[in-house]
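Question (not urgent): is this output format expected?
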Amino acid sequence: MSADFDAQVRAADRDRWLSSRFVNDPTKRADLMVLYALEAELLSIPTRVTQPLLAEMRYAWWREQLEGVFSGDPRRGHPILEALADVAARRGLTRAPWTRWMCASISAS
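Got this back:
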C-alpha cells in the first residue's frame, strides 16, 4: 500500500516526496508517505471542485473521517484513512494537532 502513497505523493508534490528519501527507516518513511498523501488529498480539493460549497462539503467529510480515526472508530474504504488509523495507533498520534492542521489546510486553500 505504501507504494501507492509513494506514487501519489511523488505526482502531487515532488519536493515533499524528495524530502522523504532522507528517512532511512522503511516503516517511518511509509508512515510519512501516508501523512503526505493526506495533505496532498486535502490540498487538491479546491482544484477538483467547481463550486466553493462542494469544497466545504469535502472538507466537512474529511473532518468527520479524521474524528473517527482519532476516536478509535475509523471508517473503512478509503486507503488513506485506513493507513492513517494504523499510523495513528503505531505512533501515538492524537487529535488536537490534526484539528489545527486541518483548519490551517482549509484556510490555506
